[in-house]
Design goal:
The complex is a heterotrimer of chains A (471), B (313) and C (269).
Chain A (H helix, E strand, L loop, with lengths): L19 H9 L2 H18 L18 E9 H25 L4 H4 L5 H5 L21 E10 L2 E8 L6 H14 L1 H6 L1 E2 L5 H11 L11 E4 L8 H11 L2 E3 L4 E4 L2 E6 L2 E4 L2 E4 L22 H6 L4 E3 L16 H9 L6 E2 L3 E2 L3 H9 L4 E5 L8 E3 L5 H13 L4 E5 L5 E6 L2 E10 L1 E4 L3 E3 L4 E5 L13 E10 L1
Parallel strand pairs in A: 1-22, 3-12, 5-6, 5-10, 10-11
Antiparallel strand pairs in A: 2-3, 2-19, 4-22, 7-8, 8-9, 13-16, 14-15, 14-16, 17-18, 18-21, 19-20, 21-22
Helix pairs in contact in A: 2-6, 3-11
Chain B lengths: L2 H33 L3 H14 L3 H5 L7 H9 L8 H14 L6 H15 L10 H23 L4 H27 L11 H13 L3 H8 L5 H9 L8 H19 L4 H14 L3 H7 L1 H24 L1
Chain C lengths: L1 E16 L1 E9 L6 E10 L2 E2 L2 E3 L5 E7 L3 E14 L29 H11 L4 H15 L1 E2 L10 H7 L1 E2 L1 H14 L4 E8 L10 E9 L3 E5 L11 E7 L2 H4 L2 E6 L4 E11 L5
Parallel strand pairs in C: 8-9
Antiparallel strand pairs in C: 1-7, 1-15, 2-6, 2-14, 3-4, 3-7, 5-6, 10-11, 10-13, 11-12
Helix pairs in contact in C: 1-4, 2-4, 3-4
Classes of the chains: A alpha+beta (471), B mainly alpha (313), C alpha+beta (269).
């Protein structure tokens, strides 16, 4: 059961040292000035057009994700631990994917049930026996990390398909620098603005070996109706690459081209923000209009790199998640630096019985769900909600996992009636090309409702700027 | 540049220009209608407006006899008419949204605020009193957009495609406005060259803001062949067919130079431009003004299709 | 037996189409019971670049990126087959048998398929079950051309009680998987000894039995494949093994002509 959560800033006069100036600043700044700064921040966001569409009925398509103006700080030692742990984790996830679509040693060694891999909806047979440039599958990962104590970080989930949110990380920093230049004078905050450059570098480094000269990279978006479209156009712009939709690309003689006013132009690397089933109507869903006919054939012929790789979703499945620590041991021969949250697999009888008996204490997740949909936070659910969920679990135990309700750390947040602690998590973005690169920080998501543990923006969560501070 | 981006820029400009031109056509219609009170000629004048706007199909699918109310409604706000002013502005906004990063802030804000205002229009804005103000507003918005394009856009292919869209559309429209006169019947009591005929030609000139230019160039009373000469063959008249074609040739050349390649669109545009540059108005009248204009409109459509094939798909 | 095959697919559009792409799985696989003596896939007379899919099926991608009004694809060659009573030998398997129990939309079970599975379950030996299943599918689904399409699911075909070889294969696969037996779709050719060429393109199923490995079952004809069968592509269902999957850009009506000629090689000059 959650007790008193660890607070990132710390209690009382002592507090945690990296927050010393923030504490002073909060003490010295009148509430109405903070309120005014928040309004200014909102104005900037609205003018830049950073919006997030929510896929629910009555959702405002131009809704802003609430932004909290109080930054979340990590010191150099904390970041050092995190970044090493993230690098290790992403390398292991990537090794698992390479193995899954190759020799399947991990399965053969009995480290993971064969069915969990082969029957997994994220497993894509079309990837079998295909060797990828640099052996990279997870070019961009978003690893969700939570904290429960000073040195206690847990990985909550891995996102290896098309993780989003990095544009908020970048825009949050922009806005903070504009609104509070004085705070950047008193803190040595590591910059994040080079992320697009690092991303482009990563993408170019995995161009097909046959590509001569500077590789052409394009960002493939499902289009302007996608909830993350703003991020797609933002990143394309920042990288100076074309933002393409499926019909802008075509395959001819197993080579991918963009349709341009100068005629067809060859594309070497596609940074796609489009899910696997929509990529190619000739190989996947035949009714998709968002994809590129023949793309998979070109991919298999080795003329184009797709980032992230097709079929990477098998690695970020919530049931496969349980096996990541073993992947780290198996593929890297190391002990995990970042722990997993202990997880019960409802597919296993004993675990399932435990979960059903302790529904009021645990968080249950749909293994194929994302964005905070299809989950049950036991302690916050009503009896009726728990009962309905219990039926779902009994019907398809293999679809659910459960975790203890972690007491997520809190961070001071500017809310209706002043500054109060709210639960936060962290999504750092890990780039993997020739080597692993991580821009210091990530996206801090904050549950704005008092006591709430759900930080997803689709569920009313907000964001904060995340500072990795030196000295 | 992506062909889709160029396509959106081209159509963005075309529809903005079309909105303005539909406004101009309606303006001619309203002026002509105010000259006569004869219901027979009245219907024929409104019919001519519908034909010139190229909206016969959509109009007659809904209405039997054209009159001020139903023509204004169809050309201004009918969502089933893709060329109604409101539809044009919606298409403009949609194209602008698709290529937002290719637009300058001024262009985007111009388009967006126009669309927001258009959505707030009330019934009274479409009444016979309100509509003239509305038409002025449309012209003003289109011209502001043109200003944003010329004052803020980088002179690269994006700009050239916007310009091509504007001039292909404008050429089409000048030809159509001039052709209005062909479709208007003069009442039996009126003579060609009579007072009503005179006012009708005046209305056409006014609608393309060329009445003063006419007097400046010809220093003569209104003569049909002078009006036609001004709107077809006079290079100094910015909405004339020869001017529009000249601009099209210029921008196609810029693109051709930048890409190091020319194609069928260049050949076609060059050909049409040459015909106009060396054209003579009496020759045109000998063959029939209406026939000439119809022929031109068809050639211009082929040119548009060729630009599309060459660059926009 | 040596079998000569010539498979011609022609498209004609009533108006020019700007772009068309066809993904072809038209090249027979090679294994102990089937050797390829010669084979080529051409489109409008030109050879096509080839690649493969995740299962190892040979794929060719035929694209035309300019306005055109038609195209002709020809797959032809000679294959030498051996009768193995339907047992597949020495095939290259990239995925373990357990992969092939995945459910897909065309092979998704419904109540009727489940009840059919329960009927078959009464037999304990897997090979007996599969033979029983093959007979039952043939008995329950009449061979009728034109009542089903490439989009028809196993459940729909069983409910209709009629269909073509593709439907027989889908029903067989769906039930085999319900019984926990790995099963897959096979597209290929069949020499029927007659002059009927239209039905020479064929589809059947394979199921995996631990002691034999992969075994072919042709529920449409109620036999295991013989040397008259030429095995081309495998997949979880028709969509993954289809000889052609195509798409085009542009509004036009399409006229499709398919001619498949399958003959014993000796009969050729």
């Amino acid at each position: 059961m959650p007790g008193v959560a660890f607070d990132e800033m710390g209690e009382g006069e002592q507090g945690r040292p990296q927050y010393a100036q923030i504490r002073d600043w909060l003490r010295a700044t009148p509430m109405d000035l903070l309120a005014q700064k928040r309004r200014e921040a909102e104005f900037v966001f609205r003018r830049t057009g950073i919006t997030f569409a929510v896929y629910t009925e009555g959702g405002d398509p131009d809704r802003l994700i609430p932004f909290d103006i109080i930054p979340r700080l990590l010191d150099a030692a904390e970041w050092n631990l995190l970044s090493r742990g993230l690098e290790q984790r992403v390398k292991a996830l990537n090794a698992f994917l390479r193995d899954t679509y190759g020799a399947r040693e991990f399965v053969r060694a009995g480290k993971i049930p064969e069915a969990l891999v082969l029957q997994n909806p994220g497993f894509e047979a079309a990837m079998q026996g295909l060797s990828l440039a640099g052996g990279v599958y997870t070019h961009v990962s978003g690893i969700d990390v939570v904290r429960t104590g000073p040195g206690e970080f847990y990985v909550l989930e891995d996102n290896c398909r098309t993780p989003s949110g990095v544009s908020y990380m970048l825009e949050n920093r922009e806005v903070m620098m504009r609104l509070f230049p004085e705070l950047f004078g008193t803190h040595r905050v590591r910059p994040v603005s080079h992320y697009p450059e690092e991303l482009l570098h990563t993408l170019r480094s995995v161009a097909p070996p046959a590509c001569m000269g500077e590789p052409t990279v394009a960002l493939l978006t499902p289009g302007s109706y996608n909830s993350a479209y703003y991020e797609h156009s933002f990143l394309a712009d920042e990288m100076g690459i074309e933002l393409v939709e499926g019909p802008d690309l075509m395959v001819d003689d197993l080579v991918v081209y963009m349709r341009t006013t100068r005629g067809p132009q060859r594309v070497d690397v596609i940074y796609r923000r489009l899910d696997d089933p929509y990529l190619d109507p000739l190989s996947f869903r035949p009714d998709t209009l968002l994809g590129v006919p023949g793309l998979m054939a070109a991919y298999r012929a080795g003329t184009v790199t797709i980032a992230n790789a097709v079929g990477a979703g098998v690695a970020d499945d919530k049931a496969v998640y349980c096996y990541v620590p073993d992947m780290i041991r198996f593929f890297l021969g190391e002990e995990p630096l970042l722990a997993n949250v202990p997880t019960w697999k409802c597919a296993e009888q004993d675990d399932c019985r435990y979960v059903l008996d302790h529904l009021a204490e645990v968080v249950v997740k749909d293994v194929h769900g994302s964005g905070g949909y299809g989950m049950l936070v036991g302690p916050h659910a009503s009896k009726a909600e728990r009962e309905t969920f219990a039926e779902k679990i009994k019907a398809r135990p293999d679809r659910y996992i459960a975790q203890p309700t972690l007491s997520l750390s809190t961070c001071p947040t500017f809310v209706e009636n002043g500054v109060a602690p709210r639960h936060v998590d962290l999504r750092p973005f890990v780039l993997y090309g020739k080597e692993v690169r991580i821009v210091p920080g990530g996206l801090t998501r904050v549950a704005l409702r008092q006591g709430s543990l759900v930080v997803n923006s689709s569920q009313g969560g907000g964001t904060k700027d995340t500072w990795v501070v030196d000295g | 540049m992506l062909s889709r981006t160029a396509d959106s820029l081209f159509w963005l400009a075309r529809y903005m220009e079309r909105a303005e031109n539909v406004a101009r056509l309606l303006d001619v219609g309203l002026r002509m209608a105010s000259l006569s009170s004869n219901p027979e000629t009245d219907a024929s004048e409104w019919h001519s407006t519908i034909v010139s706007a190229g909206c016969e199909k959509t109009f007659y699918a809904k209405h039997e006899t054209p009159n001020a109310t139903n023509v204004v409604s169809h050309l201004v706000r009918d969502p089933d008419n893709p060329s109604s002013i409101i539809s044009c502005l919606a298409t403009v906004r949609q194209n602008a949204r698709a290529v937002r990063t290719a637009l300058t802030t001024d262009m985007w804000e111009g388009v967006n605020s126009t669309w927001i205002e258009a959505r707030q229009l009330k019934d009274e804005n479409f009444s016979s009193e309100g509509v003239r103000t509305l038409l002025e507003w449309v012209k003003e918005r289109s011209q502001r957009f043109g200003g944003a394009v010329s004052h803020t856009m980088l002179r690269s292919d994006a700009y050239w495609f916007v310009r091509l869209g504007t001039f292909v559309e404008r050429a089409d429209n000048t030809a159509r406005i001039l052709d209005v006169k062909y479709h208007v019947l003069l009442p039996r009591s009126e003579n060609i060259g009579g007072i009503l005929d005179y006012y009708q030609w005046t209305a056409i000139l006014r609608s393309v803001s060329a009445l003063r230019a006419y007097h400046w160039v010809y220093r003569d009373r209104l003569q049909p062949w002078h009006v036609a000469d001004l709107l077809i063959l006079r290079a100094e008249m910015p909405r004339s067919l020869v001017s529009c074609m000249g601009e099209i040739v210029t921008y196609l050349d810029r693109i051709g130079d930048a890409y190091g390649k020319r194609g069928e669109a260049h050949r076609l545009a060059g050909g049409i431009h040459a015909q106009l540059r060396y054209g003579k108005i009496d020759r045109i009248f000998q063959g029939g003004l209406h026939e000439f204009l119809t022929g031109f409109i068809d050639q211009n459509i082929v040119l548009g299709a060729e630009i599309r094939r060459q660059y926009l798909t | 037996m040596r079998i000569r095959i010539r498979h011609t697919t022609s498209y004609a559009y009533d108006r020019p189409v700007d772009y068309a792409a066809q993904l072809l799985r038209m090249t027979p696989s090679e294994h102990a019971s089937q050797r390829i003596r010669s084979w080529r896939v051409t489109a409008d007379g030109k050879a096509l670049a080839r690649t493969d899919d995740g299962y190892g099926n040979v794929m060719h991608l035929f694209t035309v990126a300019r306005p055109h009004q038609g195209a002709t694809i020809v797959a032809e060659g000679e294959v030498e087959t051996t009768d193995t009573q339907g047992v597949l030998r020495d095939s290259i398997e990239r995925l373990p048998p357990r992969y092939w129990v995945r459910t897909t939309a065309p092979t998704a079970p419904d109540d009727e398929l489940r009840s059919l599975a329960r009927e078959i379950e009464t037999f304990s030996d897997p090979i007996v079950r599969l033979h029983r299943l093959m007979e039952t599918v043939r008995a329950r689904v009449d061979y009728v051309v034109g009542v089903t399409t490439v989009m028809t699911t196993a459940a729909e075909a069983l409910a209709k009680g009629s269909g073509v070889c593709q439907d027989h294969a889908h029903v067989f696969i769906a039930v085999a998987r319900l019984l926990g037996l790995p099963a897959r779709y096979v597209s290929g050719y069949l020499w029927q000894g007659g002059s009927e060429t239209a039905s020479a393109s064929h589809a059947w199923a394979e199921a995996h039995v631990p002691e034999f490995g992969w075994v072919g079952f042709d529920p449409a004809n109620n036999i295991c494949p013989t040397e008259k069968y030429v095995r081309v592509a495998i997949g979880l269902d028709y969509g993954e093994a289809a000889p052609v999957r195509g798409i085009r850009r542009g509004v036009a009506d399409e006229a499709l002509t398919v001619a498949v000629d399958v003959q014993p090689a000796q009969a050729q000059q």
